[in-house]
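Encode chain A's predicted structure.
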Amino acid sequence: MKTLNTTLWALFLGATLVFSSCSSDDVDPTPTTQATPTPNAPSDANAVLAAVLSYSDLPSTVPSVPGLGGIAIDVASGSFFNGAIGSTLVNVGEVKLNSKALSIPGGNAYVNNPTDLSYSLVSGQTNSWQVAGGSGFDAFTHTTAKRMPSQVKFRASLADSFSKGSDITLSIEAVTSNTDNILWVISDGRTTVTKEAKATSVTFSASELSGLRATANGLVQAASYNTEEKTFGGKKVFFVNESVHTKIVEIK
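Encoded structure for chain A:
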């Protein structure tokens, strides 16, 4: 459950990014890009709609706030293509998740409104999408048959720094309910290494991590997700429900 209003969440999110990238002790001033990891859609999909419960730990450089262990926000996105996935993005009119409209900051990519970080995403509940239609897509409304995964969490023992010259094992507390699979991520902000495994831990070998650079602003992520496909007016739409935990780490 989210306990702060959206304005406060936005302020804490901004503080996280500023402190993590501008600490006086940080030898790497490049900000970490905290993109939300999502599973690959089928190659014949014409659209992807994703609803994500995102939880991020506060970096150690951020002053502690009583009662606040991290930042929890809702992330919504929609991509509609003029052909198969990866082709040109198109505008399909208004798109809503749980009755709240997504915005189009540019390039016909739909994302959650940056002033509203709550789209009524709750573990164990279904999500309702509404698409007005356009650019060859029929209007449709769809409530996902699958429910939002419970929030995935890294184990508290997860280290704050790793050596890319050694194998790295990431562990979560449990495989949460409503999970089809888990996407595991290690990133230096430029290069990303991923694995998929429905397990409580996964190991990345040193050879797999050899392409990463050393940085104080790396990140690790575990994303529990489920997916489903539906066809509307001949267009295949790929739906994703996901919970993700992000932790900023040092990669040596």
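The radius of gyration is 18 Å.
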